[in-house]
Design brief:
There is one protein chain. The protein is of the alpha+beta class. The protein has a 5-stranded antiparallel sheet. A hairpin with a 6-residue loop joins strand 4 and strand 5. Helix 8 packs across helix 10.
């Protein structure tokens, strides 16, 4: 994890809030994206010096009252508030809730049954290393032409950063790369020896396109959104995704893709050799 994940999260969220969102006027010579530190300090009822200490990592244990005031001032969502709380609790460098446990690679029968029910939608189960553990036939049809399954085990982070075909597959590759790093960082990251080994590998094989993101991308990936694909057989696709966490014992996630528009739904039906209408746009 970045040496100052709490400060990084606060700074990026401060820069994402516009003055208009919090009822402040925008001056003609404004250079700072989002809120200035002084503006956040006023809104949260703390000093500018304290905001500076938090963002620079010189204070990593703000009180619950200060956390609540900052969360209100930054208009944080429920998931962002939870994440802010977790960041303050994990400030101890020795903290690792996973211990030395291996990332689980067995998928429970009930989860595999869910995948069967999700056909023909592209759906996949991954662990915290982003290893592909199980998937629908629809997911294989979507990703196999790009070469994801050319190596075993297939790994989404390794594919995104080290396979040139990923940049063809994803027109919004830079955004996806940001989200991939956020996913790897969302948890113990380098405190987990298995994640640390993957991060070390990508540091060496990828370089700044990975390491710069580790330092600048907050460890909070989006759980829902739209991914664009440029598929060699199905053409341009827009897929809405939902990332669903399984039980803590599983330590796995189910990622489900659904067509975001009618043309994508028709293209996926054609790719699957099914009659039109098997999948519906969401």
């Amino acid at each position: 994890m970045s040496d100052n994940e709490l400060g990084l999260f606060l700074r990026t969220r401060r820069e994402a809030v516009t003055p208009a969102q919090v009822g402040l006027a925008t001056g003609p010579r404004r250079r700072t994206p989002g809120l200035r530190r002084s503006e956040l300090a006023t809104l949260a009822g703390v000093s500018v010096e304290y905001i500076t200490r938090l963002e620079q990592g010189r204070d990593r244990r703000p009180s619950p009252q200060v956390l609540s005031a900052l969360a209100d001032a930054l208009r944080l969502s429920a998931s962002e508030r939870v994440h802010l709380h977790v960041l303050t609790k994990s400030a101890d460098a020795g903290f690792n809730c996973m211990g030395g446990a291996q990332p689980p690679r067995e998928v429970r029968p009930a989860v595999r049954a869910i995948l069967d029910r999700l056909e023909p939608a592209p759906a996949v189960v991954v662990n915290r290393l982003t290893e592909v553990l199980a998937h629908t036939d629809g997911y294989h049809r979507l990703m196999a032409p790009f070469g994801l399954f050319d190596t075993t085990p297939a790994n989404l982070a390794r594919f995104v950063f080290t396979d040139p075909r990923a940049r063809t597959a994803y027109p919004d590759w830079h955004h996806l790369a940001d989200q991939t790093v956020a996913t790897l960082k969302h948890g113990p990251f380098r405190k987990d020896p298995h994640l640390a080994a993957l991060a070390d590998e990508l540091t060496v094989t990828v370089g700044p396109e990975f390491t710069d993101r580790v330092e600048t991308v907050p460890s909070l990936p989006t759980a829902t959104g739209i991914t664009r694909f440029a598929h060699p057989d199905a053409g341009q696709l827009r897929l809405a995704y939902e990332i669903l966490g399984l039980s803590a014992d599983d330590d796995q996630h189910l990622i489900v893709h659904l067509p975001a528009d009618e043309s994508t739904a028709a293209a996926l039906d054609k790719l699957a050799g099914r009659r039109p209408g098997a999948l519906h746009a969401v």
